[in-house]
Amino acid sequence: MDRYPGSVQEEMRQNGGRLTLEQILRYGADIARGVAELHAAGIVCMSIKPSNILLDANGHAVVSDYGLSAILKNLTSRKVPDDSNTSGMDATVLSPNYTAPEAWGPLKKSLNLFWDSANGISPESDAWSFGCTLVEMCTGAVPWTGLSAEDIYKSVVKEKKPPPQYSRVVGVGLPGELWKMIGDCLQFRASRRPSFQDMLKTFLRHLLEIPRSPPASPENDITNVSLPNGVEPSRTSMLDLVHDNPNALHHLVCEGNAAGVRDLLAEAASTGNSSLIRSLLEAQNTDGYTALHLACRRGSAELVEAIVAYQENVDILDKDESPPIVFALAAGSPQCVRALIRRSANVNSMLREGLGPSLAHICAHHGQPECMQELLMAGVDPNAVDGDGESILHIAVTKRYTDCAIVILENGGCSSMSIPNSQNKTPLHLCIETWNASLVKRWVEVASKEQIVEAVDVPSPVGTALCMAAALKKEHEKEGRELVRILLAVGADPTAQDDPHCRTALHTAAMINDAELVKIILDAGVDVNIRNAQNTTPLHVALNRGANSCVGLLLAAGADCNLQLCDCVKTMVPWVSLCYANFSQHMFSSLNINFRGWTLRDFLERLPREWISEELMEKLEDKGVHLSPTIYEVADWVKFRRTVTSPDFGWQGAGPKSIGFVQSIVDNDHLIVSFCSGEARVLTSEVIKVIPLNRGQHVQLKADILEPRC
Question: Which residues have C-beta within 8 Å of that of residue 551, sequence separation ≥ 6?
């Protein structure tokens, strides 16, 4: 087996995490050529990543470990039962950071080295991995870095998103065609990804535009390596380079050759020919970019400083009417932004002749906190709003760029928390939707009392921030509780109701049976008997939902059991006895009068008698509360009361646990009941109704039954 002295990953590490444009093009061409040959042989690589791209002694990239993942999977799959409910690749088989969406699917059969028999894997899967690898080669950042395999799966498969690092690819001086090609590799639908043959052509076409140099450091000086025997270039040779190639300055910038840029511009300036240096600075390459645009896109402050020393207009536009500072923001280089601002760059400009976004909105879109700091310190309005009503805080929160959002808040952007966008949502609402408790907490710390009051109770289409926080789904209930605690502490209105359910935060907590959230709300001093638009209290909701853990909390906090009941259902019945246990004698006396509409007694009288448990009936009678006599009909199911030990007419073959149905009604006090043992005469006071068992009913074993008979 051949040995290779290095890899692309090691080369990136030695060069400070990034590669030159020439290295990206040459390595990319080598990889595309090799993978295309493997695909022609019917083999899918499955593991394209920088650590698997080796470098030979001549500096050529070589693809390694292709197909190894499939072999490992075949070996391990024999040990796993066929009914294994694995939902995706094992992390030891495929690296999640480079795995295509279709490769995350259920493994209904073992993977095969040859792609035509694989499940979900195809040559296009390698294109996705190659796109992720190119993102890392361009930015120095591992795709999806900091995320777990589960989070990557959610972003790739569920949300259909490319790696967030892809947005930073523009900062390395790549031509637009290459940037688009990488984006095509990261298409969710495999059929839309480019073939490796097409990508090879793209790499080779762009390689023809740059001079040959060894793949060493991003700081290589191409003026030295382009001349034989390391001869120092003369003043004449530099100007000759311009005459031979009008885009010579662009090439120097793309190579990161700051010394060459300074020398070329200094020599051009020394001629006293202002038109010459202007032509160098204002010339556009085939993609429509000036040298300053490319320097900013590369994120090199040294290059930008070298150019702006001779360029008066740092707001020069490219073919898309974007100034260089836009590229500096996208690259995330605060040094470049600072250099442009020192040369009087217009930080308050709106793109597209005032119809596009502001620079601050672009910066928020890319989530660059240090660049945002530079803009705000230069006088950018932290509460600026675009044509769609989106503030820069809206964008930072939506993109989950918390650090960038905090910079906005700390530099005068707290008022933006109350600004609704076109969807009638404020940044505070978006914080709730993205479970960003840390950002809300920081806002509370830096905002004034007036700013908090202005924003905290602004309604969204689904209610105020407090209502939204209380209703967060179960997997984010921890963040929801923290948000509720923060909002109540700063004075959020606890009586605010969501739309369309008309629930307060306490009603919602009781409905979802979140006892901890109920306690947080009650500890904040919220009225336990708070009513919603339907005149319902949280206790009603908890009883209606069977929220066992919340009923006790509400009762202990003083929930009034005797308030008017509206639209209650039979699920409340098991809790009526608990309510009665908390009644005072005075409250029991009120059960016999009509108090605020229906009382609990009124409610019980209107329920089918078989819904009322024997235990509840006994508690009512112990308190001196008697319901009207039970009316029996033929075919009603009955059983002996548990207090009956000796029936007036004897057991007649039946037993204490016997259940039968009414055969006939003798009079108001006597019934003929048919048990399994035969007919028996009983008193109406000796039996109670029970719910008949019909097909489809939900049942459970009795508490005293250890094992069913069958």
Answer: 539, 542, 543, 575, 578
